[in-house]
């Protein structure tokens, strides 16, 4: 079993250790696992990103989240209009929870839709 040992280093040794860490990071960024030409490994990644640019925008994600929150809000509104009782196990969920959830989901849906409109 390995034991962990704490060692106090003088300030000048800490500075040299930090410089060695920077050199290690610099060395790792120059090549991946000893490979000097990173572009050969990931040659097709730039093309894939450019083809899917509309699908990876923040506006699309915000719109999708807005629609999901709107569906939750509609579900809670339907529950309130129909006075549907929801029971989990033996516990009956009160209607006021749907009122709170409806308000929160509607606010989030509206907020995200407006954010997506501002970004596009």
Structure description:
- This protein is mainly alpha-helical and 120 residues long.
- 68% of the residues lie in helices and 5% in strands.
- The protein has 5 helices and 2 strands; from the N terminus they run ααααββα.
- A two-stranded antiparallel sheet has the order 1-2.
- The termini are far apart.
- Residues 22-31 have low confidence and may be disordered.
List keywords for this structure.
single chain, 120 residues, mainly alpha, two-stranded antiparallel ribbon, 68% helix, 5% strand
Mean pLDDT: 75
Give the CA-CA distance, first to last residue.
57 Å
Question: In percent, how helical is the residue content?
Answer: 55-70%
Backbone structural class: mainly alpha
Number of helices: 5
SSE pattern: HHHHEEH
Secondary-structure topology with pairs:
Layout: H1 11-30, H2 38-41, H3 45-51, H4 58-82, E1 86-88, E2 91-93, H5 95-119
Antiparallel strand pairs: 1-2
Brief synopsis:
The longest helix has 25 residues, at 58-82.
């Amino acid at each position: 079993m390995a034991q962990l040992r704490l060692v106090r280093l003088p300030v000048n040794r800490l500075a040299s250790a930090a410089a060695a860490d920077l050199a290690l990071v610099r060395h790792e960024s120059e090549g991946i696992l000893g490979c000097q030409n990173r572009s050969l490994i990931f040659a097709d990644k730039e093309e894939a990103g450019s083809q899917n640019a509309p699908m990876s925008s923040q506006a699309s994600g915000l719109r999708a989240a807005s629609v999901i929150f709107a569906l939750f809000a509609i579900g809670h509104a339907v529950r309130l209009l129909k006075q549907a009782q929801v029971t989990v196990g033996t516990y009956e969920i009160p209607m006021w929870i749907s009122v709170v959830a409806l308000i929160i989901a509607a606010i989030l849906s509206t907020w995200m839709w407006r954010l997506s409109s501002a970004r596009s």
